[in-house]
Structure formats: C-alpha cells, structure tokens
C-alpha cells in the first residue's frame, strides 16, 4: 500500500442491513495505474441460489446480453428477462464521462466477473471505476438502494479539514442541483470550485431508473456521509447502487 502517491486510495466497503454497519474489508486500489479499477462486489444471499441450466440462468444470461448490447450507446439500461417466478431484473450504468467503447469494455469485464464471483446467486452487484452492474429477482427499479455502498478515500489529509469538508459539501450539493435539473436526462454532473491555491473537482451521478427527486434524495444521503467516508481527505467517493459522488483536488473527469 502506497501512502505517498496521490492516486493511492483506500476502500472501506460495507453493507447496511437492519441499521447494522458491518465493515467487510479494507483494500487498496491504485486507481491511476489501472484505467478501470475493480472496486467491489456483493452477492446477495437473501434471494438464494439458482441451479445450473434453470430458467433463471437462461433469463440471467439473456439479461446480460441485453445490457451488453444496450448500455454502451447511452451509458445506461434497465431491463428484465423472463416471467415470474424466474424473472430477472438488472441494470447497468457507465460513468457519465466514459466513451461508449470504454463503457462497452467495462461491461465486457464486469459481466463475466460478477458471474464468476457470485456463481448461481440470484442477485449480485459489481462496481468498477467505469461501470456498475446489478441484477436481482426482485424488481428494484425506481427505488433507492440504501444497502449497497462502498466508501473510498485518498489517504492524504488536507490541512484544514472543517473548511475543506464544507467546500466539498457545497460543491457536491451544487452538482446535485445540476444533475437533477429537469432537462438533465443523464442524472450526471461534473464541476469544479476554486479553493484559493488549489481547486476541487467533483462528479455526481444517479442510475436513470430513478426520478429526479429520488436522485436528489439519494445524493443528499451520500453527501451526508462525507464525515464518515472521507473526513478531511484530499479525495473521496461514496459509490452506491443508485447514486455516487467523487471529489478530488486534481482533475479526474475524462475529457472527450
Ligand atoms: C492522515 O491522518 C490520519 C489521522 O490523523 C493519520 O493516521 C494518517 O497517517 C494521515 N495520513 C497521511 C498520508 O499522512
């Protein structure tokens, strides 16, 4: 683990279930040495398992094909495959600033990887820098996922944490307004803020199955997590299954 590199980040991932916060693991990611770093995955045990060659497996494979086909051109798709009780629901979201080819290659990595990591699980989720893929037997479209979330932070500390945290919150709140404005179909916004000698860069995004009010509620919720995820850190992210933010003191948004 390098603590000197500004790209070195620490991941703290957890799931919130019945108000209990469980810290699962801590791991390092070198986000700039890899273009599309793997962040985290979670297999749901609650929904149980499907058996090989079952209708559920057929529907899941069909869902994955639909997502691979539909997502790269727009960066998002939500889709279902099959009929109850073997219906599978899923969505995939690429980061708003990635090209359609990077989006496609993220899915081409993520889909086999989630199948490998969650073999026969009826529900699962996987996050990379550039995309997320989630599937479930439960219809979750339009609902904020409060359970699945990953925290990441840059290991470097800022010198004035309380004012820095406030500036971060201000920037991300402004970006939330921009992302949820009526004409913003992508539920995505990036921006920057001058902090005297340095600049703060930010990004917010929601999955597009959410209405803009739900997107705002989701983002307000994770922005409220700044003291827990990245208090006084030079960079931080809360990456959920319905929304995410990132801020850094260096430009990280991809320019087309
Ligand atoms: C940041 O601050 C924490 C808590 O004071 C400390 O443990 C850590 O070593 C610091 N990180 C760096 C990179 O100096």
TrEMBL record:
Repeat in keyword set: yes
Keywords: Repeat, Secreted, Signal
Keyword Oxidoreductase: no
Domain (Gnk2-homologous): residue spans on this chain: 38-140, 146-252
Pfam families tied to this protein: Stress-antifung (PF01657)
Family, per entry: Belongs to the cysteine-rich repeat secretory protein family.
Domain of life of the source: Eukaryota
GO cellular component: extracellular region
Annotated source species: Arabis nemorensis
PROSITE patterns: GNK2 (PS51473)
UniProt subcellular location: Secreted
Signal peptide: 1-31
Protein known as: Gnk2-homologous domain-containing protein
């Amino acid at each position: 683990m390098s603590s000197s590199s500004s790209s070195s980040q620490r991941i703290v991932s957890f799931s919130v279930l019945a108000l209990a916060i469980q810290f699962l693991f801590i791991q390092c990611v070198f986000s700039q040495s890899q273009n599309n770093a793997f962040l985290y995955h979670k297999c749901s045990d609650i929904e149980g398992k499907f058996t090989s060659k079952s209708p559920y497996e057929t529907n899941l494979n069909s869902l994955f094909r639909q997502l691979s086909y539909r997502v790269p051109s727009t960066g998002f798709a939500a889709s279902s495959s099959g009929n109850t009780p073997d219906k599978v629901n899923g969505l995939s979201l690429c980061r708003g600033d990635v090209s359609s080819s990077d989006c496609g290659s993220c899915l081409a990595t993520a889909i086999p990887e989630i199948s490998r990591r969650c073999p026969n699980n009826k529900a699962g989720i996987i996050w990379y820098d550039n995309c997320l893929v989630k599937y479930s037997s439960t219809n979750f479209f339009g609902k904020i996922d409060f359970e699945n979330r990953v925290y990441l932070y840059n290991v470097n500390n800022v010198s004035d944490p309380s004012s820095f945290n406030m500036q971060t919150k201000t920037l991300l709140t402004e970006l939330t307004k921009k992302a949820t404005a009526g004409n913003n179909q992508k539920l995505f916004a990036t921006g920057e803020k001058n902090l005297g000698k340095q600049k703060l860069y930010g990004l917010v995004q929601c999955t597009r199955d959410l209405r803009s009010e739900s997107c705002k509620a989701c983002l307000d919720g994770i922005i409220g997590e700044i003291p827990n995820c990245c208090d006084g850190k030079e960079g931080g992210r809360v990456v959920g299954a319905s929304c995410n933010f990132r801020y850094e003191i260096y430009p990280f948004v991809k320019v087309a």
